[in-house]
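yo

u said u wanted the structure for the complex thing, so here. seqs first:
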Amino acid sequence: MKRSFLLYFLITLIGIIFIARLFQLQIIRGANYDPIRNSAVKIKYDYPERGYVYDRNGTLLVANQLSYDVIVQPNKVLPLDTLEFCKLLKIDKKQFLKKFKRAEKYATYKPSVFLKQLAKEDFAFLQEKLQKFKGFYIQKRIIRKYPINAAANVLGYIGEVNESMAKKSNYYQQGELIGKDGIERQYEKLLRGKKGKKFLSLNRFNNVTGSYLKGTYDTLSLNGKDLTLTLDVKLQGYAQKLMTGKRGGIVAIEPSTGEILALVTAPSYDPNMLVGRNRSKNSVLLFNDTISKPSYDRGLLAAYAPGSPFKIMNALIGLQENVINEQTSFKCYNGFKYGKRANEFMGCHCGIVGRPIQLKTAIAESCNSYFSHTYKRIVEKNNQPSEGLDNWHKHVSSFGLGNYLGYDLPAGQKGLIPDGNYYDSRYKYSWNGSTNISNAIGQGEILTTPIQLANFTAAIANKGFFYTPHILKEVDQNPIDNPKYTIPKQTTIDKKHFSPLIEAMHEVFKTGTGKWSQVEGIEICGKTGTAENFSKINGKKVQLVDHSILIAFAPKKKPQIALAIFVENGGYGSAIAAPIASLLIEKYVTGNISKKNKYREQRILNLSLEKNYTYLN
Amino acid sequence: MRQEQNNIFAEIDWLLVFIFLILVSFGWMNIYAASRTSEDLELLDFSTKHGKQFVFICLTIPLIVLILFFNSTFYEKFSSLFYLISIASLIGLFVFGKTINGATSWYNFGAMGLQPSEFVKAFTALAIAKLLSDRKYNLQLTKNQIKAFIIVFTPAFLIILQPDAGSALIYLAFFLVLNREGLTLNYILFGALIILLFIFIILFGYISISLCLITLITIGLLYAIYRGGKRFIRFNWHKVLIIYLVTLLFTFGTNFTYNTIFKQHHRDRFEVLLGLKTDTKNIGYNSYQSELTISSGSWTGKGFLKGDITKGDFVPEQHTDYIFSTVGEEWGFVGSSFVILLFMLMLYRIIYLAETHTNKFGRIYGYGVAAILFFHIVINLGMVIGLMPTVGIPLPFFSYGGSSLWGFTILLFIFIRLDAHKNYDW
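structre next:
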């Protein structure tokens, strides 16, 4: 072998290795190389203005305002009069050093936020003197403004995109604004528009050296869209006012469209609290309050036992399944005995002892026994109680109960409507209609949210169908065309079965439990409820003051509004929920409260239930 | 002895000259791309890097003419003198040298600096050629081996003292020359083994490597005992003991050297390269940026003067040691492979020509030229494409710098001069 072979061999080997490596780098790795995502290119964003939000009558609910951030690029900072600077920014020297260190830690050659959301007055002072402080700049930012203090739970809020979100997203950069709750979150894409991009060439000192590839990749920004909500802010504000001092939720829906007129949770907060410099301080107040939970939307999230209003559901199913008819009558002996043992007895307050009671009276007087009989018949119609209950479940579900309704807000609860399986696994197949008799009167396992109940009410008002509740009415003045919200959903109950129940519900406000809350000239149909609730306090099961519940719609002939009201620990439905409902209906239908009913308004406004909530504290 | 032809240009190897011209001009284009500061044409601005390089390139013309002017025998006769002057110039650095970046490698002449180590390589190659071309010289003899080693390692040692370990590393190339002339391959194999072990020790830790080695040796020993019986142990026990001791000494010694004699930045370079550390900001920044820059070139590159990473000046020392990353970005896979193939062609050509020499001196010198260029290319490109640790040496004919350009020009053109008269027996 010639001795020169070694060097020939080495040259060839290295040549092949290097070219293979180049292939790996340039062809294989180069395929993933994004020309605009490298350190030599900086993207400058052009942020469009976020869309405004209006209520159904065109009242401005959410607007924009300017805010000023102080930006610092540490490597450009020259020695400065810290004392004066701190005075201008209204911070102390310790804070100054802390913030400065943080900026330095982030990057000395890149600008970062030094102080967020300066007050306008401070900004004016600072702007004059900023010349003196090299390396500090002012950056304008657009933040939200809420002209009306209402519907914070619906509107939601915007916040900064954090690091982990930015990593997952291919649109957002860290620190940009994004809708975090409510409408802002649900319709983020519509509201935000699309930011424009300008690609700039950089050198390694991070200085811009010009436009990248003459702007080939640059894009223009697209403005955010203005949204019109279905909300009636007058009604919303009024409902919020009536709920002061109480806890609970109110949902009002326009039955003919499914539009949400009011979505109230109490207690609530001023949406302006989450804007500006006090934002972080306030968010601690709001989000860490685990007792009154102002950030918890009870209208959407609180699943309560529906109580007596659910009797209407059972009556409808009874009629549909033909186990009762309008003339069917049951007798009540201060209650219903559903088992042989003495404690297997459900009490009743209808007060009609021993006389046959028909459907209309049963609804108006809220007779527990009547609906226990009905429920038992429904469940035990077939030999297998589980089949009967499945059938019952099918009917209930068709009203949107027991599952997410599909409305366009980012929070929801399924609630609970048990089916055959539920009890089969719980009682090992040995159960019957008596086992879960509480379902007859809307207690027991059943859980519904106020918006589900409001939708249920709307379906009654419509006599058998409903539109999925929704909050968005128009986008840039164009009505929504999402078939999800424009095509009605049929329930499994025939139209003819609703009329007697609507009559009965009308009776409730004429002669029954709601008669003290009538409004002259408006035929209100409704059903009050009182749901027992228990809590464990110090390990002992304690019965608390009942929840006050009501569903109602009005006017009877051409329903304009359907609502559900839940007042936690409010006592009898007729005492609190009914007057609130009547006030809201009067306000919505006529536009104001008649003199005659002012006393009612005053009573509710002055009523505080805070003492009822002290057990929680 | 035949009369020499009057026209030297008819005899020189034009292919090598041609490759040289392509490399130098293509190199300059890339230096222009890497060091230009604005969009304007600034070809004749001599305060810029590319302007200066232009002057350096122009000055190679009188240099080449001068080299070709001398008779071939001149280089052989005066090789020892050149070598002694080289050594003196390296020693002189410690008195008159200028320190740049911590290394005293430069003589200062007003605005210009000269780096003698770039020239010494060529003269060491001449000296080795002279030594080995002696007909009575036999490299099998240890005495002769030591002579050769002294010639090679004296300049290398002086360069290490500057300290410029990267440039000193090049002198290992002479082992390839010595091997060609009869030195046993064991030296190279042993060196390769040491490097391999070194890498394994860094990768897997010295304890596990010692255990592996001892297990291997023990297995070999058991096999030898099985074959040779008890007598084997009786006659060879001291050898076995020495093998064990040397192995342990080596692994522990390597670990010690690595952890205490090496500086942290050396360790970091190795660890980043071997993937033990990921770092794109500090130590790994150069390699990371360089790889990224090359990757961004894809098949055909972004085009001359259109490399935005080059323009943004992200790769440090891009016009000198990292010049190849500009090629990668602006000329893509096609352009950078072309450069590698061109270098390969040049090396093949030199070896081929050297092997045709009837004269031993010319052949050995040619071999030296090929080996030196080869080492430079491997170490420089290996670093730029992220296959080798960061060692700052220039890419021949490409990198910015007068000393290195002239050093390589002298190296190459002495060979071309010798080659022009290879068929004359002097």
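Chain A has a mean pLDDT of 86. Residues 233-616 of chain A form a domain with the Beta-lactamase fold (CATH 3.40.710.10).
cya
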